[in-house]
Specification:
Blueprint lengths: L3 E7 L3 E7 L5 E7 L4 E6 L7 E7 L1 H25 L4 E6 L16 H5 L2 E7 L2 E4 L12 E6 L1 H13 L3
Antiparallel strand pairs: 1-2, 2-3, 3-4, 4-5, 6-9, 7-8, 7-9
């Protein structure tokens, strides 16, 4: 499914990016030159008239992006599971793990176990699509995708290391 996104220059203000929904609604993010941003819902009959607008702080915008990203990721993972042969698993990084306090790349999980760590959950924070530089802390929940044997190997790796 393709999603239509339109970019509209707003002279003297900044840029607006609109997502056009399947139902015909338009949701926009206005990025002001000042660094401020607004989330806007547009009138269905007049795409230039916002029916409502919410100013977002940096933290609120980041939280909204994380929630939306995590929601999409969970839906996609559910679809993968139904494809057969692949599984998703939540693995908690134990306090005694040799990788606690390091970064994700230290695990070399993909190379060693043929699994992918697609998110890290730390308390209420979700880190979707972590990079090799993403820090790992004891108690983190790692969301991984792979075969049953790969996920078993990942669980051992996270607990005991590569030894």
């Amino acid at each position: 499914m393709s999603v239509r996104i339109e970019r509209v220059e707003l002279p003297g203000i900044g840029t607006r990016h609109d997502v056009l929904t399947e139902s015909g609604r338009r949701v926009g993010v206005v990025a002001h030159r000042t660094g401020e941003r607004d989330l806007a819902l547009f009138d269905i009959d007049d795409p230039d008239a916002a029916s409502d607008s919410i100013e977002l702080t940096d933290d609120e915008a980041a939280a909204l992006a994380n929630v939306l990203g995590a929601s999409v990721m969970v839906s996609q993972l559910t679809g993968i599971r139904e494809a057969g042969g692949l599984f998703t698993e939540q693995l908690v990084l134990p306090a005694g793990s040799p990788y606690a306090g390091g970064v994700l790349g230290d695990t070399r999980a993909r190379t060693r176990t043929h699994t992918s760590i697609v998110a890290i959950v730390r308390g209420a924070e979700v880190i979707p699509s972590p990079t090799p530089d993403s820090p790992l802390q004891a108690g983190d929940t790692l969301i991984a995708v792979g075969t049953r044997s790969g996920l078993d190997a990942l669980a051992k790796l996270l607990t005991h290391g590569a030894g």
